[in-house]
Amino acid sequence: MKEELGDASSLFEKVFNIHHEGNYVDELLQKRTRKNILYLKKPIGELASELGMNPKELRKKLEEARKALLDAREKRVPPSKDDKILTDWNGLMIVALATAAQAFNEPAYREAAKRSAKFILEHLQTREGRLLHRFREGEAAQPGNFDDYAFFIWGLIELYEATFEHRFLSEAIRLQDVSIEHFWDADNGGFFFTADDAEKILIRHKEAQDGALPSGNSVALLNMLRLARMTGNEDYTLKAERLVKTFSPQVMQSPVYNTMFLTSLDFLFGPSYEIVLVGDLDSEETRGMLNSITTKFLPNKIILFKTIGDSKLEKIAGYTSSMKTIENKTTAYICKNFACKAPTTETCEVEKTLTRE
Question: Global pTM?
């Protein structure tokens, strides 16, 4: 480093805490390894004061040093880069972005989630509508595993609630049915990790333990419960209850390793809310009412939006056919475990109901 930075190396070492014996301690050996991790102990302003420098001058010198080190690094073979696109990981990202879009009312998050979902729907599906696992350099390949379906369906449900675009909910329902057809264990319940027509292996395993990532079965449990409430299709509820029976001994034995599964169970046992808004999605009163719902922490809920004069939602959720606006105002139908309050057009009443409950 001294060869690349010259006189500036001493300053660089002080700022980023670089030592000859290294600043990294091996956890196993409890020894310094002569390797350094560059980090700042204090803000640049404080460091500049201690060094007797102007903060602007210090930033300039550090930027010059950074460029010199980058030029030297680019003369060496670069590290390998993992640039493949995975359906399951993108599904989790869509969940995060769509959830944040609702909580913070941030359009940028919503648009990023939509772009990711559209890419998967356009490039990571077979002609038969089955998901593929990965995309790289223009090629989509490898049949989707169950995590691909579970995580992406989760993302589509969250994305519907962030946009109220029917296509995302319709795709979530279609893919849920596809996953049941090809991954469901009809004999013992639960979802296999590989499809029934995938490459034959000795054992088709089922995973429900949650780790750094949630398991597909834990996420699928929540997906089916939410879709059951959204569509009124009780087949999803029956599948969810069967899945619970399948994995309950494992969960009871080690609940700390089944956190996502327990989150889904919490939705099942309730209380949960079914919320349907009817009105003009672009109106100010609708946006105000939506904000009163989405900015609250209410994880056990589903939200549907029915546009005035639009029958698309009725085809997905038939029970919404009788739900209409009152005096042409945005109207909220709030139910708790399918026991519904009187519809209201007042945002304050929506807030009171959700707060009180």
Answer: 0.84
pLDDT tens digits along 294-349: 988 888 999 999 998 778 899 999 999 889 999 999 999 998 877 888 999 999 88
CATH code given to domain 85-269: 1.50.10.20
Q: Which sequence spans correspond to the domains of the chain?
A: 2-73, 85-269, 273-356
Residue 127's φ and ψ, nearest 5 degrees, are: -60, -25
- Give the tens place of pLDDT for each residue, 210-244: 999 999 999 999 999 999 999 999 999 999 999 99
Q: Where are the alpha helices (DSSP H) in the chain?
A: 2-5, 9-15, 44-51, 55-73, 87-104, 107-123, 146-163, 166-183, 216-231, 234-253, 259-269, 284-294, 312-316, 347-356
Q: How far apart are CA 75 and CA 71, in angstroms?
A: 7
Which residue is associated with the tokens 């209850």?
241
267, 133, 94, 210: CA torsion to nearest 10: 40
CB 314 within 8 A of CB 267: no
Q: If one looks up domain 273-356 in CATH, what number appears?
A: 3.40.30
